[in-house]
Amino acid sequence: MTETPQRPLRVLAAMSGGVDSAVAAARAAEAGHDVTGVHLALSANPQSFRTGARGCCTIEDSRDARRAADVIGIPFYVWDLADRFREDVVEDFIAEYEAGRTPNPCLRCNEKIKFAALLDKALALGFDAVCTGHYAKVVVGEDGNRELHRASDMAKDQSYVLGVLDEKQLAHALFPLGDTVTTKDEIRAEAERRGLAVARKPDSHDICFIADGDTQGFLAGRLGKAEGDIVDESGTRLGTHEGAYGFTIGQRKGLRIGTPAPDGKPRYVLDISPVTNTVTVGPAAALDVVGLTAIKPRWCGTAPTGPGTYTAQLRAHGGETEATAEPVDGELRVTFTEPVRGVAPGQAIVLYDGTRVVGSATIATTTRATAGAL
Fold first, then answer.
1. 116 and 324 in contact (C-beta within 8 Å)?
2. Region annotation Interaction with tRNA: residue ranges (predicted)?
3. 21 is in an annotated binding site
């Protein structure tokens, strides 16, 4: 396999205002590419987005990105994608929670904004590729097809949130930070050497469009409070809540159940029913999942035609687990070698063959290990 690209390209560098995207743009320019920086304005009211430690979507971030582009010596523009972001990411996020699912807005942003809306516009304007600060690698396989692989530094690998990219998108993607084993401290040191003021800017972790980090309050403000029951596995009412959307599968804290479990052990959220507005809780063992069905599969290359053995990642910062998976009638059927926990409908499952990303899909249903578990 060989890493790509091998020739100078016209590159549009997505500059969020953080240190990673700034260094990625600088490396692309240093490699001889004709680079233009662009910051995506994702809110009609940027003041409402989280500031200070984001490196993502605020006015402060836009200014940081512009200063970085000036230091690198590349043209810089701000593109307004607020309407697209609201429709494809924010409204999708709200709708998924309302339906009792747990979405990943960063993954959806990569799919719909950075590598759909942005890439489509870049290609229409004559650019060859979009460059971002993600930690991942694009390589050319022995058959000449492009593949997405984990970053050389597993501690920083972000291939999970890029698992939605298809081969056509990968053909126009550059990830300058993923090819070398580089720690975040080394990236910051490089930024300082380059004179980039974002060198010590804190990383972004929270959801950019929830300014105060209060996801439940954000959802309540848009969906309204709706009191419902918290019940155990037998259906016994244990307490009430102000909206089933405020819970996620596997949640332990914030249940506010006055009655202790018979065995004295903690209870966890096992199921969320938006139809009845009911939250079901139970023991940790009832969270064990042995299989799942996922929908809307997207393949980073040729789609598998039969069952295969892979490793699966179920959350952005989670580990891998062995699994067998098979596409069936437009869905993905997965069986795990060992039970896994913290699996919720709406999350993404990403399959790997070694370091290669095979593809991803959205979890629709799960099969629990405990007989009678929901």
1. no
2. 156-158
3. yes
| Residue pointed to by tokens 């997965």 | 334
Q: Establish whether 346 is an annotated binding residue.
A: no
Catalytic-residue membership of 208: yes
Contact 147, 136 (CB under 8 A): no
Spatial distance between the Cα atoms of 139 and 145, rounded to a whole number of angstroms: 8
Is 279 annotated to bind ligand? Answer: no
109 counts as catalytic = yes
Which pairs from 233-238 meet CB under 8 Å and 24+ separation? 233/270, 233/280, 233/282, 233/286, 233/372, 233/373, 233/374, 238/281
Distances (CA, A) of 278 to 173, 274, 374: 43, 7, 13
- In the chain the domains, ranked by start, together with CATH numbers, are 2-200 (3.40.50.620), 225-286 (2.30.30.280), 288-368 (2.40.30.10)
Please, which pLDDT band fits residue 373 given cuts at 50, 70 and 90?
very low
Q: What is this structure's pTM?
A: 0.89
State the maximum Cα–Cα separation within the chain, in Å, rounded to a whole number. 67
Catalytic residue among 56, 57, 131, 208: 208
Ranked by mean pLDDT, which of 41-45, 143-147, 209-213 comes out on top?
143-147
pLDDT of 149-183, one tens digit each?
999 888 889 999 999 999 889 999 999 998 776 77
Q: Is 320's pLDDT higher than 50?
A: yes
Q: What digits encode the pLDDT tens for the residues 238-253?
A: 999 999 988 999 999 8
Task: Give the pLDDT score at 129.
Answer: 95
User: Taking a C-beta distance cutoff of 8 angstroms, is the pair 348, 329 a contact?
Assistant: no
Note whether 70 and 105 are within 8 A (CB). no
Question: From the candidates 56, 57, 109, 300, which is the catalytic residue?
Answer: 109
144 is in an annotated binding site: no
